[in-house]
Amino acid sequence: MKPSPAPFVAVLELTLRCPCRCQTCGSYAGAARARELDHDEWLGVIGSLADLGCRRITLMGGEPLLYPRWADLVCAGRARDMLVDLISCGQGLDERVALAMRECGLHSVTISIDGLANTHDAQRRVSGCFEQALRAIRFVDQAGLKVGVTSQVNQGNLSELESLAHILEEAGVLGWQLQLTLPLGRAEEHRHLIAPPAMMPELLRVLRRLGRRAGLRPHLTDNIGYGTSDDIALRTIQGSFPRPWLGCRAGLDALGVGSDGRVKGCLALPDICTEGNVREEPLVAIWNDPNRFSYNRHYTPAQLSGACADCEQARLCRGGCTATAYAMHGKPGVSTHCFLHASATMVSTTREA
Ligand code: SF4
Ligand code: SF4
Question: Measured from the CA of 247, which atom of ligand 2 is nearest?
């Protein structure tokens, strides 16, 4: 597939440091990586992205607020006309930080919340983490910035999503994104939390009920869904334009840079999908090399396997999320969690009943 001349969005992992030790953390965040990029190196990355024509960057971690000069990086992005978003666990995000976020021109803040208070605190392994996350949401909202929430969905919280919707709505959340917990990083040690394919029909039922809510409604991110007639509706960000699933965009118009300088099409991908390092060659050269990001740029249907190999929707879908396929099956182009199978199961169960 032909890549865009520029990544539309780049995700920058400012540091792997994090105050939480989440059971579900795909990148095993907590301590910093060895030799994380320094400030000049990050300014170079942002300058290269702007030179390429990238329009949007997302700062994440670990916890990006533990990178001391995060606000200066926001200013650097804004000075090159890029929108800058930030994803945080909300710890340490008080009124002063929220005002600094507004001052530096941050476009939006997304706080991660993975269940009701007890579940969230247990999965994050930080007591009081849920209440602090809600406080952070209110501070950001009061500062006049757009605030959203991202939630991982797993066996430990599916039954809580509908109760969580009310709480997030009352706190001032404008957008709520959902993603499946993947068996990566620390989550590999907590496999009992990973949703099995058999849980997908119930997840789809819950999502359809939430989709009919009058207030805050969640939307699916890249690693959930596919194939059903309501996929676009479930995937569309509330109040925004329709968002069809067009397959994995890693290396086509999406890019990630790790805190050690490693470049991948998406930071959720395994290390074998590393395309280079900004310390060793210019980011522009990495992006412009037609021989990199081969799983997408040189995609062929031969990469598909399992049910995806015979699927009528595979031409566009290409087997769902590449990182999920690697995490679950060790290769791209296969999904056992596709909602197409889930909805077929629901139809056959209804017929049998
Ligand atoms: S079966 Fe595979 S290719 Fe078909 S819609 Fe599902 S994930 Fe996509
Ligand atoms: S690997 Fe998955 S999360 Fe990453 S860009 Fe592709 S579809 Fe999206």
Answer: 7
User: What is the pTM (predicted TM-score) of this model?
Assistant: 0.95
For the stretch 235-287, pLDDT in tens is 999 989 999 999 999 999 999 999 999 999 999 999 999 999 999 999 999 99
Q: Whose CA is nearest to atom 5 of ligand 2?
A: 250
- Ligand 1 nearest-atom number relative to CA 308: 2
Which of 130-139, 250-259, 342-351 comes out lowest in average pLDDT?
342-351
Ligand nearest to the CA of 317: 1
**Mutation probe of ligand 1 site: the residue of 304, 315, 317 with most atoms within 8 A of C-beta:** 317
Nearest-ligand number for the alpha carbon of 255: 2
pLDDT of residue 348: 66
Q: Which residues line ligand 1 (CB under 6 A)?
A: 226-227, 307-308, 311, 313-314, 317, 319-320, 335, 338, 340
Q: Mean pLDDT in the chain? A: 95
Helix axes 161-171, 129-142, angle to 10 degrees: 40
Nearest atom within ligand 1 for CA of residue 314: 3
What b/e readout covers 249-284, taking b as 16+ CB neighbours within 10 angstroms? bbbbbbbbbbbbbbbbbbbbbeeebebbbbeeeebe
Q: Which of 204, 222, 223, 226 to mutate to test the pocket of ligand 1 (most atoms within 8 A of CB)?
A: 226
Return d(Cα 306, Cα 301) in angstroms, integer.
12
Distances (CA, A) of 36 to 12, 46, 82, 218: 12, 16, 23, 34
Burial of 247 by CB count in 10 Å (0-12 exposed, 13-18 middle, 19+ buried)?
buried
